[in-house]
Amino acid sequence: MNELPKLLDDLITCGNKLTETAQALKDYYSATTDVKEEKPKKSAKKEAPKEEPKAEEPKAYTDVEVRAALAEKNKLDGKKYSPQVKALVVKYSADGTFSGIPEEKYTELMTELEGIGNG
Predict the structure, then answer these.
(1) DSSP state of 45
(2) Sign of the four-CA dihedral 112, 59, 27, 41
(3) Cα 51 to Cα 49: distance, rounded to the nearest angstrom
(4) What is the DSSP letter of 13?
(5) Whole-number Å distance between alpha carbons of 70 and 106
(6) Contact residues for 117 (Cβ-Cβ < 8 A; gap 6+)
(7) CA 89, CA 109: separation in Å to the nearest integer?
(8) How far does CA 58 lie from the centroid of its chain?
(9) 48-55 long-range contacts, Cβ below 8 Å, gap at least 24?
(10) What is the largest CA-CA distance in the chain?
């Protein structure tokens, strides 16, 4: 019975990821359809000045995304990275649990999480 809440959290996470994936596919195919329908207009060789690329702002992660990423990394290679994932949660949490991690630390946590297993 103790596994039921964790299984339900995993199911919710999976559903959220599926929704995100479906939305991304919809956005992608909607964008490519719109682009194909537009025909480029021929004009004199006056082009608008190119904008300088701006420095990318760090992505703002939601609690669902962070929880899903932690769960995914925790499951990799037979839970090989479980101690490192738990250590990250403890490091960023006020009380040692995921719910104790402040939202402003999500980006920092995700950056460290990406490094686990890649070094």
Answers:
(1) S
(2) negative
(3) 6
(4) H
(5) 11
(6) 73, 76, 77, 80, 81
(7) 8
(8) 11
(9) none
(10) 71
14-55 pLDDT per residue, tens:
888 888 888 888 887 887 655 555 555 555 556 666 666 666
**46-59 per-position pLDDT tens digit:** 666 666 666 677 77
Q: Can you tell me which residue has the tokens 């082009």?
A: 47
Both tokens of residue 6? 């964790």
Token reading at 72: 């995914």
Contact 61, 107 (CB under 8 A): yes
Residues in the chain: 119
Which of 95, 90, 88 shows the shortest CA–CA distance to 69?
88
pTM, full prediction: 0.51
Residue pointed to by tokens 């490091």 = 91
For residue 101, give every residue at least 6 positions away whose Cβ sits within 8 Å of its Cβ, in sequence order, or none.
Answer: 66, 89, 92, 93, 94, 109
Of 46, 119, 117, nearest to 79 (Cα)? 117
End-to-end Cα distance, the chain: 37
